[in-house]
């Protein structure tokens, strides 16, 4: 009976140890991956100006400094055409292990690929919301594995000692120690299943089982702290990513969506128009006499005019209409659904009238007007670039007609 109980005890402790060691290894690998991802993103932000200005020497110094963090085997900075801009290879490495960045990297913050003894991180390099290159980091996990192995070895020694002592004193401690061990085993299985590392083992006394429970609780505490830090970092990165995405699609002056957002929105609404056979309208809006305002009153006045124009047009539009600033004094307006062409034409007239209302800024009357080019999908075009080009041609036809008016795309050539 004693031998059987000892075998059960040994199996239970080894199973507990294996579950905790496995969970610790998985958590540690995930923590290492997130840490490498975060550090690579910071490095990418630092490298962006160097990549734009082709400062290879500064970039090489930055890569060398980054490699001092330990475990880095290879780092490479690539341009948009996949040519190498800067590269660092550990002196102990003779072969290149880096692969080309994923094709869809531009739409993500970073990509992490885990291997058995290493990991690869691909990070896009942006500057002011524009993709200018990519960063690839090849990092070793051997240090992490050695740390886990050392922890496993120490834990194995403790387990061996506990089994030896339990075997000699089992007759005396059976009734007192068996119940806490079973409880500890159940707790380990529960933690491995629920991944709730906030649970703790109850310490019944200062004997071997009690010390084992203390070590177990210490290990759980370390894992819980690591998990909490990892979750907090993930939350911060998620918030930062959401803020970055919002800034990347917003015009900093007028707070309207920018050209990048306009292009994706136009593709999306054209697809909806064609699939559901609904009429969609696109307006290309160009301000009249805006250069005159800049020349006479300065760029600050010009910025104020753009903000006021954006506000006036927004008040005229429906909640589902999409108004974007394309750059300079040009705006794009997407009307996802219109009942007929006449409704869009009436809206164009209301926009022109709203902009032409007297605008006094800084005590000066601003001679601002608007010229509008109007095109329809699927009536005129069904491709985004062609529809935008048709609206642009119609806008220039309206300019030739005397400005402060609008023209239809299919009438632009003859106007």
UniProtKB/TrEMBL annotation:
PANTHER family attached to this UniProt entry: DIGUANYLATE CYCLASE DGCT-RELATED, SLL0267 PROTEIN
Keyword Nucleotidyltransferase: yes
Enzyme class, UniProt record, top EC level: transferase
One Pfam family from the record: GGDEF
Keyword field contains Plastid: no
PROSITE patterns: GGDEF, HAMP
Highest taxon listed in the record's lineage: Bacteria
CDD domains hit by this protein: GGDEF, HAMP
GO molecular function, one term: diguanylate cyclase activity
Enzyme Commission no: 2.7.7.65
Protein name: Diguanylate cyclase
Ranges of residues in domain HAMP: 175-228
Transmembrane residue ranges: 148-170
GGDEF domain sequence ranges: 278-411
UniProtKB keywords: Membrane, Nucleotidyltransferase, Transferase, Transmembrane, Transmembrane helix
């Amino acid at each position: 009976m004693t031998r059987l109980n000892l075998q059960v005890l040994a199996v239970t402790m080894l199973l507990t140890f294996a579950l905790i060691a496995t969970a610790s290894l998985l958590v540690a690998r995930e923590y290492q991956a997130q840490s490498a991802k975060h550090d690579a993103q910071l490095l990418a932000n630092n490298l962006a100006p160097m990549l734009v200005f082709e400062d290879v020497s500064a970039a090489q110094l930055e890569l060398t400094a980054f490699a001092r963090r330990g475990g880095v085997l290879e780092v490479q900075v690539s341009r948009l055409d996949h040519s190498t801009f800067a590269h660092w290879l550990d002196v102990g490495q003779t072969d290149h292990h880096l692969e080309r960045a994923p094709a869809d990297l531009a739409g993500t913050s970073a990509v992490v690929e885990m291997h058995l003894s290493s990991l690869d991180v691909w990070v896009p390099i942006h500057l002011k919301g524009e993709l200018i290159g990519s960063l690839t980091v090849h990092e070793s996990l051997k240090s992490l594995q050695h740390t886990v192995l050392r922890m496993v070895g120490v834990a194995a020694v403790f387990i061996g000692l506990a089994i030896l002592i339990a075997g000699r004193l089992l007759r005396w401690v059976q009734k007192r120690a068996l119940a806490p061990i079973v409880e500890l085993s159940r707790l380990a299985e529960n933690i491995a299943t629920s991944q709730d590392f906030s649970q703790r083992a109850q310490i019944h006394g200062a004997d071997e089982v009690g010390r084992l429970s203390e070590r177990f609780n210490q290990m759980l505490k370390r894992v819980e702290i690591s998990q909490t830090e990892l979750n907090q970092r993930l939350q911060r990165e998620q918030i930062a990513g959401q803020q970055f995405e919002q800034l990347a699609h917003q015009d900093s002056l007028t707070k309207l969506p920018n050209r990048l957002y306009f292009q994706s929105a136009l593709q999306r609404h054209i697809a909806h128009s064609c699939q559901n056979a609904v009429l969609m309208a696109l307006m290309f809006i160009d301000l009249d006499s805006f250069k005159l305002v800049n020349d006479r009153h300065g760029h600050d006045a010009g910025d104020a005019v753009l903000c006021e124009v954006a506000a006036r047009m927004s008040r005229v539009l429906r909640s589902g209409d999409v108004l974007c600033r394309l750059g300079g004094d040009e705006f794009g307006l997407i009307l996802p659904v219109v009942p007929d062409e006449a409704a869009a034409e009436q809206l164009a007239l209301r926009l022109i009238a709203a902009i032409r209302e007297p605008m006094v800024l800084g005590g000066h009357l601003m001679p601002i007007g608007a010229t509008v080019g109007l095109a329809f999908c699927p009536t005129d075009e069904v491709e985004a670039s062609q529809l935008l080009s048709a609206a642009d041609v119609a806008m220039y036809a309206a300019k030739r007609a005397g400005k402060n008016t609008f023209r239809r795309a299919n009438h632009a050539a003859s106007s």
